[in-house]
Design a protein that fits this description.
The complex is a heterotrimer of chains A (about 300), B (about 500) and C (about 425). Chain A has about 300 residues and is an all-alpha fold. Helix content of chain A is about 75%, strand content about 0%. Chain A has a two-stranded antiparallel ribbon. In chain A, α6 (about 140-160) crosses α7 (about 160-170). Chain B is about 30% helix and about 25% strand. In chain B, the strands form 6 sheets. Chain B has a 6-stranded mixed beta sheet, with helices on both faces. A 6-stranded mixed beta sheet of chain B has the order 18-21-22-15-23-24, with helices on both faces. In chain B, strands 2-1-4-5 form a 4-stranded antiparallel beta sheet, covered by helices on one side. The two termini of chain B are about 40 Å apart. Chain C is an all-alpha fold and about 425 residues long. Chain C is about 75% helix and about 0% strand. Chain C has helices at about 5-40, 50-55, 60-65, 80-105, 110-125, 125-150, 160-175, 180-210, 215-235, 260-265, 280-295, 300-310, 310-315, 320-335, 340-345, 360-370, 375-395, 405-435; strands spanning about 40-45, 75, 105-110. Chain C is globular and about 90 Å long. Chain C starts with a helix and ends with a helix. Classes of the chains: A mainly alpha (about 300), B alpha/beta (about 500), C mainly alpha (about 425). At the A-C interface, α4, α10 and α12 of A face α9, α16 and α18 of C.
Chain lengths: ~300, ~500, ~425
Amino acid sequence: MESILAIMASSIRFSIPYTLAGLGGTYSERSGVVNIGLEGMMLIGAFTAVAVANATGSAWLGLLAAIIAGMLLGVIHGVVCVTFKADQIVSGLAIIIFAAGITVFFAWLLFNQTQIKSEAYLRVPLLHDIPAFKVLFSEIPPMIFLTAAIVIVSHFVIFKTVFGLRLRAVGEHPQAADTLGISVDKMRYTGVIISGALAGMAGAYLSLEHAHYFVKGISAGRGFIGLASMIFGKWTPFGTAGAGLLFGFGEALKPYLPKVVPSQFIDMIPYVLTIFVLASAVGRAAPPAAIGIPYIKE
Amino acid sequence: MVAYAVEMHNISKQFPLVLANDDVTFTVQSGEIHALVGENGAGKSTLMNILYGLLRPESGTITVNGKAARFAGPGDAIASGIGMVHQHFMLIPPLTVAENVVLGHEPSKRGFVDRARANQTVKALSDQYGLKVDPTAKVETLSVGIEQRIEIIKVLYRGAEILILDEPTAVLTPQEVDELFEILRSLKDQGKTIIFITHKLQEVMAVADTVTVMRRGKVVGTVPTAETTRQEIATMMVGRQVLFRVERTQAEPGEVVLMVKDLNALDNKNLPALRDISFSVREGEILGIAGVEGNGQTELVEVLTGLRKAQSGQVELNGQVITNYSPRLVRESGTGHIPEDRQRRGLVLDFNVAQNMVLGIHYRKPFVRHLGLDVINFGPIREKAQRLLQEFDIRPPDHENLAGNLSGGNQQKVIVAREFDQNPKLLIAAQPTRGIDVGSIEFIHQRLLQARDNGKAVLLISADLEEILSISDNIAVMYEGQIVGTLEPAEATEERLGLMMTGGGK
Amino acid sequence: MTVELKLSRIFQFKTLLGIISPIVAVITAFVVGALVILVFIKSFELTESAFVRLAEKGVPAAVLDNLQVLKGKEYPNKSTFEKDLRAAIGDQNYAQYNRTIKKEALTRENPLTVYDAIFTAALKDRDGWGNVIYRATPLILTGLAVALAFQCGLFNIGGEGQMVMGGFAITWIGFTFVKLPAFLLIPMCILGGAIVGGIWGGIPGYLKARRGVHEVVTTIMLNWIAVAFTQYLTMAYKPKESWIPHTYEIAKSAQLSRLAHYLNPLGIDFPKSNLLNTAVLLSIFAVIFAAYLLRRTKLGYEIRSVGFNPTAAECAGINVAKNTVLAMAISGAMAGLAGVNQVMGYKHRFRYGVFEGMGFDGIGVAFIGRNSPLGVVLAALLFGILDHGGLAIDVSTKVPREIILVLKAVILIFVVISGEITKRVIKRIQKRQEARA
């Protein structure tokens, strides 16, 4: 019984980066821009979070800085894909390479090493000092609540607000949206910048909470699993969170599995699953119709 | 209300290669249903695009409801109360009807879409004009007929008093057409002015008050429908010009080469495009299939060339059944194909002329040598290309020139040269002279006649009546996926053809 | 001038632009890199002249005396410098003078020195060149993989996965069939690498052709599956005594000799330690093969026609599905051969670390090389220069080696952007020509 609770708790914790990254991807792809660079945005968020947290002593500032760093990469992606209408996939790849380089570059520069311990912890001030809450919060990182809140809010934003409606319109049929006076470019920039912010947040969680340090390549493909979560979750916030939980569950199970099944095969599961989902009829119906195609006004 | 809702005087619009509107004067009375008819390329869509602010005329004036209008874009037109329902719908499939209608002008409460109010407004408009749409349905589940009504609501939602509909019945079933007419009458009863573009004359007679006919960029005439007949309009549309008939010998057709029996096929929207269509072409004969584009001709050619599946029916080439053969097998059975879209279907623009000359036969000797891998033999390819460049007078005569650099006429000549050189038993030519210069048109027509004289069977599909009349030995008219009549050239007058092409021949 | 001649002038203009844009991209990247270096690379050092300037600025002699401790010491890290400074002159003086002192001690790195270091290390002698070519060898293959797929209109991001799967196959054959002589074993290994890589590439090709699944996602997923799988296999075939995650060593007959082994007897002086080995011949062959395939075979013709215009290809009877799968399979096979250099020519064992990142680099190489075989070679050499020269940066300058990654990424971004701009400029010129005609 105890281990079941522990697994559940771990699942939720492991799912956070996947969910956040996947959510980021959702915003971007819903507007019609493929964002493969999530992995890079996550990495830069991870680094920035620790760097700023250590410098200022506040993990929350680190989180904020990570979000901004992610957004900046989002802007770059937007410029290349929306303004210059260049290939979205190559741009995403370039962002990953860029982030990989620049994070280690600055790690060496500022800290003289590639493994930087996070000296600050995400603590909710005031609340944390109340003994009852202390127990709660020391087991559960505050990011869980933040993530859950973002998932719920995203659902409403994407499906119930004016902004969300226009975002989806732009991703499905940009020409129709254009004829109705909606700025396709502006909506796409917004989608991409939000995706950068969320991916940066995911990275911040990785370095501040999950591992408590930044190390080169800490994202380890989580950005791609985030993409898989998004596809699995059919580009919806709740779906993505569910898929993220699923992948988190897989990760939580690892120490409990019989030694017979090699851990590497468990690692493979999210990827194999994604391929199956895509190859089956289910996967094909889903992505926003105009995705990946730069919108050029006639 | 002002007497005239719309007045367009002396409108001229020049495109790079064609004068689309030539000093056109077009007026619409308030509260009437006014039909604008003409063949493809007559200039009707251009004129309406100008009215809607999508295009700017070189000269002329526009007055809307008595006020002079200078539209910088559709926004201005909408502000003046003009709404346009395009031929190609601008609807977003996964969203609901209401969402599509209000997009861009959403009723909102603190940033959230006020779904209830949107649904209500849409329902109200729907009821008011008898449009019968469910605001909460997702567009992707709806038929084309309902999609069109959504477009109408979209336009009404934005306050349109003058509605322009571009070929509204092109995609509708007969019942949906009747329903549309009910709606149009209802709109008219409530004071709206309606202009609709069409080429289907029985519809014009059924619902329009006035009809304006355009031909080759000019207005031929404007008459109240009560005072005219379908025949008259057809004549005005098609024109009593002296047709340039090419000098040719009498045809001596022989055996049947192509036999099409009861062919059925669907279009891209899974609606029937070919309905039990049957016809045959003999060797030494040019069969011209006339018809306004959009009546199944594209799908017919695709089925015959293996690019589209036939649901039922049979295609026989010289007695051999080739129904649903792959494109390569169709070609190897002896069919040549000049596609209607030369840039998408006929050529690889990034390849040079020589490479395009062997497209489709590139795998045959002597163009390849079998050396484990099939290696390309450039010599024979170059020779063939140079020979054909000469023979067909293609300019510039450079076989290394990229196909994308050629003019439309020369591109078409490359395709014609390629297909002719293969000596097919059956040659399918779809809209072969669309959009090319007069000299090239003449050249291609002569070649087609030559092929016929050499015993080939030629299937010519064209929306250009002049072309059909000038080189066909036998004429069939296609309307809504069927052959509605066949005529000998002698009995094919412009009136009869025009009538059949617009649905009056049955 | 006639319209036709004018239009063919544009064609030549297009190839010219095509060559210029990567060069411009590289130059831009170096400029950006220079800016980064100038802005961010700071070190602190108190030289003799610094002391003089500090005295002129009015820093008291007592403080300067205490400061002597720090003379000549180089501090790449600001915080360490501050710590020592504080320790040397005391808190009070620190509060008063630290800003002045830091200003005088601040030195920036000259980007030109950095670039000079890169190019010198890479190009100054045979050892440098040898290393550059050695590093370019696998990149040529992974770059060709991406370029070939792109000729068919496909995005093969799976180079990483195809490479390790092929690489493992090479290793397995190498340590399983130890009794075979070199002339049999080496071709078998090469063939194995190509076949396994080809299968791994063919899978996403098939999924795209038959089920319309976009190859970008499937290739990325297969990358991670391949990495996990080969890691499992590595552990399965790991020598028991070893702590390092690598497999058994391949047979001597499967190992490729370094070029020094061949060049030195011929009188060409070449350092024995240089890693350049005979695998480079395979890469050169692959380039020639790829160029030949694309330009001179029926398959190449069909692949390119599908890449340029699948609708026209279909209409002409070309089997689009078959060509899609073939293009991806050949592409995967190319990537699978990268292991020939890494395993047979260098490590003689399978170890993931030896492969890491080359698949991704291959994508950069392909795009910077404009997806043409010759371009891939040039781009791979460029990357080789950057990679090898980058090692020297760490040693002789204060710039971290990772600036190379930044340079690579910026080059890639600019190549992509300039490619788009080129296309649009040409389209606009063409439209203007047509209108005038």
